[in-house]
Amino acid sequence: MIPIPAALAARYSRSSDGRAWLASLPDLVQDRLDQWRLEPDLAPASLPWHGHGGIVVPVRQDDGSPAALKVAFPHDEARLERHALSLWGGRGAVALLRADGEACAMLLERLEAGRSAAVLPMHEAVQVWGGLVRQLRVAPDGKPEWREFDHIAARAEQWSDDFPADWEQLGRPFPRWLLEAALEVCQTRGAVGRRSALDVLVHTDLHFLNILARPAVLEDAAAAGGGTFAGSGYAAIDPQPMIGEPEFAVAPLLWNRLRDLPADDPGAGLLRRCRAFSNAAGLDPEVSRQWAIAREVANALWYAGHGQQGDLVRSLWVASTLAGQTLAGLPHPHALPEPGE
Question: Is the pLDDT of residue 86 over 60?
């Protein structure tokens, strides 16, 4: 039986739905192993990989080739993942080999779990990220998968309604001017997005840890044969897909790795980072900055409502700095927690 990592068990044991899923997980994994004729490829005494929302078991297919079996907790983002991966077809994102929508299970190309863009020097991460986003920028066509995704402009319209009410209900956890800056973005970009004919599929959670290296042997073979995987040594995972302006994707890069910003002027460094990643991907840096303000205000309101003070302070530093007026009294960004810490 495949063991369940303790951190994953602890996370999902907090709710009745989570406990029910944990109880079913060994059978779900074994069923996919049997049906897809897979053999676990775990080293002795080692645990499967896991993320926030599921378990990933390295496996061998019946021809001996490596793959990864992912079984996710059933939720909206997990149900959408297979549709996005199908549309990308292995270009810029992990390749989808098989899927079982009912079980929220996927058989995926195996990537190097220990080699993410989080360990790359920032100038290299810029080029890797920009190259992936250029590959991921696919426009809607007649395929049925497109009907599954929400529109970013609709999210902005929802935020325009929700932000003021949440801000009041939570006791006005930050100054009104920052709330109004986010609302202006939602109203402006939401209207532009509704009028635009330039919609693309957007990976909305493309931070450094969601970019993994492809095994060198696979990359070399694909490049030599002109195959699907040629052109990038990295691939995106866990897409949280939406449709709309691609600049929406830049924000997670700005609230991660804050300790890599220059100590003497981190605010200017944050704006340079926004420009650098946007330019590498062929995006508009100003639109990226605007979307990041709105997304971090959304995060700040969520953190305020869930008592996550460290995360709240980080979001307020990023949002206010991008809006041009870093809030007084906040810690230096090098002292702020990274997401998930």
Answer: yes
- The one-letter amino acid code at 291 reads W
- What residue ranges of the chain are covered by domains with CATH 3.90.1200.10? 115-335
For the chain, helix (H) and strand (E) counts, in that order, are 11, 11
Average pLDDT over residues 260-264: 98
> How far is 68 from 58, CA to CA, in rounded Å?
4
pLDDT in tens, 8-28: 898 899 999 999 999 999 999
Nearest in space to 210 (alpha carbons), one of 130, 115, 280: 115
The pLDDT tens digits for 272-318 are: 999 999 999 999 999 999 999 999 999 999 999 999 999 999 999 99
Domain with CATH 3.30.200.20 in the chain: 6-109
Angstrom distances, CA of residue 184 to CA of 1, 159, 282: 53, 11, 24
C-alpha 14/C-alpha 290 separation (Å) is 36
Distances in Å between the Cα of 191 and the Cα atoms of 160, 188, 288 are 12, 5, 16
Architecture of the domain made up of 115-335: Alpha-Beta Complex (3.90)
Domain 6-109, what fold?
Phosphorylase Kinase; domain 1 (3.30.200)
Residues in the chain: 341
CB count, 10 Å around CB of 88?
22
Residue type present at position 180: E
DSSP states of 95-138 as a string? PEEEEETTTTEEEE---EEEEEGGGS-HHHHHHHHHHHHHHH--
3-state SS record for 258-308: HHHCCCCCHHHHHHHHHHHHHHHCCCCHHHHHHHHHHHHHHHHHHHHHCCC
Are 149 and 242 within 8 A, CB to CB?
A: yes
